[in-house]
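re: the backbone from monday

yeah here it is again, tokenized this time
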């Protein structure tokens, strides 16, 4: 994977997804054992944020520092990007200074443009249409729990958003069956569904759409939800609250799932909306393991893009 970009899960081959899971397992073990790993010594990571973040910022910054490197946080307010300097120029300038670039922004096209003009690897830290690092951490969390993911049932309930898009593709890549459960008008983009279904077909798994939560949640191994209004959709929050009110994970929905089902949420969560407080805090929840795994998986991705074996 040396020198490549991670712009979406679709960029990764089946073998690369497996490689990331293996590398994350290895780096997590070393970290827990307190073993120093200096892969990024004398290296610098630039992190561009056009949207808010807690997990992504801290896990990338801490993860890069744990590997001996230095990370720089860049936002619009304090850089020339906010005054209109084009991303093409920013890409070429940063490439002269740093070894890796991570970006969280609105349009996927901006991430693609950054990667096109950059000579160092670019990692997508979330756009309006995808969140590949999240999906990799989520699948790593499921992998730790179940080991063999083939034919396990992954159910996403809520808004068919950026996280749902990346989860569809990562489920297809690891051979999990996925049901995306949304009300009409909130399903993911048809092209993204078709792309994930095409990959699923290759491995013999299924990506299905469903509007009935009771049907979707039956025998789930993973129940997943995310906020009803994502960053940038604040003005639609009231309407979304109304339209999505029945698309949540609560005790009743959990009852339909398999006994050893895990409950996931990428965070931040709105208790009492897409997830009830009792399920969020309950024994099936692996939400904070999932948040922790952002650290290990992103360290793995960065190490592989830099060329570490
Ligand atoms: N899940 C996630 O990406 O969280 P942040 O928005 O806090 O980075
Ligand atoms: N769908 C959410 C994910 C946040 C990590 C958003 O884009 O705001």
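seq for it, each position gets an aa:
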């Amino acid at each position: 994977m040396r020198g490549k970009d991670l712009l979406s899960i679709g960029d990764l081959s089946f073998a690369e997804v497996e490689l990331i899971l293996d590398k994350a397992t290895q780096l997590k073990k070393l970290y827990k054992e307190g073993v120093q790993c200096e892969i990024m010594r004398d290296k610098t990571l630039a992190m561009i944020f056009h949207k808010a973040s807690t997990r992504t910022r801290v896990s990338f910054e801490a993860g890069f520092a744990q590997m001996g490197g230095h990370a720089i946080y860049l936002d619009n307010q304090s850089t020339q990007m906010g005054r209109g300097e084009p991303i093409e120029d920013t890409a070429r300038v940063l490439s002269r200074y740093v070894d890796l670039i991570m970006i969280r922004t609105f349009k996927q096209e901006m991430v693609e443009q950054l990667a096109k003009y950059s000579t160092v690897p670019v990692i997508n830290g979330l756009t309006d249409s995808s969140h590949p690092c999240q999906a990799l951490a989520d699948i790593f969390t499921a992998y730790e729990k179940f080991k063999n993911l083939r034919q396990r049932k992954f159910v996403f309930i809520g808004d068919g958003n950026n996280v749902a898009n990346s989860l569809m593709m990562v489920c297809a890549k690891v051979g999990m069956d996925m049901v995306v459960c949304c009300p009409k008008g909130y399903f993911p983009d048809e092209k993204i569904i078709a792309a994930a279904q095409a990959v699923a077909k290759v491995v013999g798994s299924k990506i299905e759409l469903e509007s009935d939560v009771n049907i979707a949640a039956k025998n789930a191994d993973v129940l997943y939800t995310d906020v009803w209004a994502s960053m940038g959709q604040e003005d639609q929050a009231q309407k979304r609250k109304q339209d999505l009110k029945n698309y949540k994970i609560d005790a009743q929905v959990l009852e339909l799932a398999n006994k050893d089902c895990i409950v996931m949420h990428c965070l931040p969560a709105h208790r009492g909306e897409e997830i009830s407080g009792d399920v969020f805090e309950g024994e099936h929840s692996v939400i904070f393991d999932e948040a922790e795994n952002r650290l290990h998986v992103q360290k793995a991705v960065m190490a592989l893009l830099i060329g570490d074996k």
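The chain has twelve helices and nine strands. The pocket of phosphoric acid mono(formamide)ester (ligand 1) is lined by residues 53-56, 126, 134, 266-267 (CB under 6 Å).
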